[in-house]
Automatic annotation (TrEMBL):
Single GO MF annotation: heme binding
Xref: PANTHER family: CYTOCHROME P450 4C3-RELATED, CYTOCHROME P450 FAMILY 4
The protein's name in its UniProt record: Uncharacterized protein
Known cofactor(s): heme
SUPFAM superfamilies: Cytochrome P450
């Protein structure tokens, strides 16, 4: 059900694409309340929603601060398949470099 809501063409300009502009403040203001509910709404919403968001932001900021990510692929050429989650069709390699070692080169 959430997948159907989150891909509604009446609400989302690019429903089947990874399109970060959907979450710009001016875009959020245009959407009806409840059009994006990854943790549900109301008194029975997911109690882990706030914890999940804080944990993810903390983890991502630590990883990005500590490591550098590189790939030879171009984002525009990646192909995706749609299932429960958006996933790439082909495998791709990513190099993860320790930022402390980069300065030693």
């Amino acid at each position: 059900m959430l997948n159907t809501l989150h891909k509604n063409r009446e609400i989302w300009s690019h429903p089947n694409e990874f399109y970060p502009d959907h979450f710009l403040p001016e875009e959020i203001a245009k959407r009806p309340k409840g059009s994006y509910i990854p943790f549900s709404l109301g008194p029975r919403n997911c109690p882990g929603g706030v914890y999940a968001n804080v944990s993810i932001k903390t983890m991502v900021s630590v990883v990005i601060r500590k490591y550098k990510f590189e790939t030879d692929l171009q984002f525009e050429k990646l192909e995706y398949k749609y299932s429960l989650l958006l996933e790439p069709v082909q495998d791709y390699l990513v190099r993860i470099l320790d930022r402390n070692c980069i300065n030693d080169r």
